[in-house]
Amino acid sequence: MNIGQAAELSNLPAKTIRYYEDIELVTPERSDNGYRKYSEKDIHRLRFVQRARSLGFSIEECRLLLSLYQDKNRASSDVKALALDKVGEIDRKITELQSLRMTLSSLAEKCHGDDKPDCPIIDDLAGLHDQ
After folding, report:
1. Radius of gyration of the chain (CA)
2. Residue 30: in which H helix or E strand, if any?
3. Is the whole-model pTM more than 0.90?
4. 3-class secondary-structure state, position 29
5. How far apart are CA 56 and CA 90, in angstroms?
6. pLDDT tens across 2-14, in order?
7. What value, to the nearest 5°, has the Cα angle with vertex 85 and ends 59 and 80?
8. Stretch 75-103: mean pLDDT
9. Does residue 131 surpass a pLDDT of 60?
10. Alpha-carbon distance values, 74 to 19, 66, 69, 128 (Å)
11. Which residues are paired to 29 by β-bridges?
12. What does the DSSP 8-state code read for residue 25?
């Protein structure tokens, strides 16, 4: 199948599929005229990567997950470790975002929001909050 069909079946833009080919996550065959020919296996790989990316895995982590997927002798503990590492990373990001939210919310509360130029938000961004 061509890239348009592959894009439709994998629910990915053709540009993303070309990028995944450039970085060798997928390697479709080429016809005599040079056009890409995607197989069902390629579509499956594209869907796999799309799902992994939607769960927050990086390209390199997707590459590792694909290699584990293809390795029928893999240990599920290796896959679980990757998933748990990702959960830890997500937890750290949540904590960081909650802290950012609290800081920004606090600054917004201190701002009068009127037509005067004094603004604690701007002062904080400019590093003037300590002065």
Report:
1. 23
2. strand 29-30
3. no
4. strand
5. 8
6. 999 999 999 999 9
7. 95
8. 97
9. no
10. 28, 11, 8, 55
11. 37
12. S
Under a CB-based contact definition with an 8 Å cutoff, are residues 89 and 56 in contact? yes
Tokens of 74: 């893999």
pLDDT score of 70: 93
| Pair 29, 39: CB distance under 8 Å | yes
Count CB neighbours of 12 within 10 A: 19
Helix axes 40-54, 14-22, angle to 10 degrees: 100
Domain boundaries, the chain: 3-125
Per the CB < 8 A criterion, the answer to whether 95 and 103 are in contact is no
CA distances (Å), origin 8, targets 2, 14, 38, 47: 10, 9, 12, 11
Fill in the amino acid letter for 90. Answer: I
CATH class of 3-125: mainly alpha
Give the total residue count for the chain: 131
Residue 129's pLDDT band (boundaries 50, 70, 90)? low
| Helix, strand, or coil (residue 36) | strand
Q: How confident is the model at residue 32 (pLDDT cuts 50, 70, 90)?
A: confident
Closest CA to 27 of 66, 58, 53: 66
